[in-house]
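Notes to self after the Tuesday call (sharing in case useful).
The group wants a holo model before anyone commits to mutagenesis around the pocket. I volunteered. Ligand is pyridoxal-5'-phosphate. Logging inputs and output together so the record is complete.
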Amino acid sequence: MQSQLDYRDTPSLLIDVEKMERTLKEMATVAADAGVALRPHVKTHKCTALALRQLELGARGITVAKIGEAEVMAHAGIRDIRIAYPVVGEYKLKRLAKLMERAEVSVSLDSVEVARGLSDLGRRLGRRIPILLKINAGLNRTGVLPEDAVTAARALESLPGVQLVGILTHEGQALKEPSRDGAKQVALRVGAIMVETAQRLRQAGFGIEEVSVGSTPTVRDIARVPGVTEIRPGTYIFNDFNEVTLGVASEETCALTVLATIISIPADDRAVLDAGAKTLSSDLLSPPSARKGYGYIKGYPDITIARLNEEHGILTLQNAKSTLKIGQQVEIIPNHVCPVVNLADVMYLMRNGVCEGQLEILAAGKNR
Ligand SMILES: Cc1ncc(COP(=O)(O)O)c(C=O)c1O
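Result:
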């Protein structure tokens, strides 16, 4: 059921529509100019209307992490879905089978065990499920090392219900860099690793058509590496304070803010917001930064959101106390926008300070 609360009834998420549209169009141009496909990761907005808008602006398809996200998106009519996450276990495979009745689905994976489950499903359905081999290009999360890619691909060859169509990585390690230039170096390095790996696989006889990469801090550089075929940025749609700290976004290009209200000023050096960890998430900044706290309050660079409880955000005030009042509302740029959206039910669409509608976050909480 859609919430009918007023956006001023806080805490609430506001989208500056013009800022978001500008970034969406810019990313479509980045992809078109580089001659690569754009496949945005929808885990950032979790919202069918925004995924459809990305497709309308030229995205080839979407990326999801979880089958629950894919189910919501397929229900809205989205047909081309890449699950950039290993699908493990019979319950997930059952849901994947149903999903494949409605959408063209591809899956990334890094093990023969996961591929075998998919292959059995593919065989039952009488088709080959497209798979992408996940490469660990430095994030050290999932993925096979580039030097092991040919061996890993050989292990998949005998499986009749899957078809290896490409390789995929996520260069999220760029977010730990201290600067935009550091992120650029990661982009170029990972781009080169992926293109070389694809080349070695082709030389070994594998039909690698897709070289899929992407993260917001690197995407504008890695898209232009010759041989890359697809980019999958997610966070770019809203940006956040991580991206600002890294230098790939600015306060001006952050499209989503949390509107919160000062509910208490119990001491000279302390005020309290009605947004805690259940609104802002507990994520601190990723890039190395002198800035502490759980988000950036616009217009108040000296105030830190120093602590969070579930429903309270505790501000440490230096000399700003006199400017804050109980009942006052402030806008916060989240450190990491994706978990913030996942914790909400609606987002309000704002244009020039006027609310022109709201979007239901239909895939919020769809974490399985
Ligand atoms: C596999 C994968 N692809 C793409 C992305 C998008 O990255 P970003 O949110 O930095 O744009 C993510 C982010 O977590 C991811 O895990």
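Two things stood out.
Residues 281 and 340 are 6 Å apart (CA to CA).
The chain has two domains: 18-239, 251-360.
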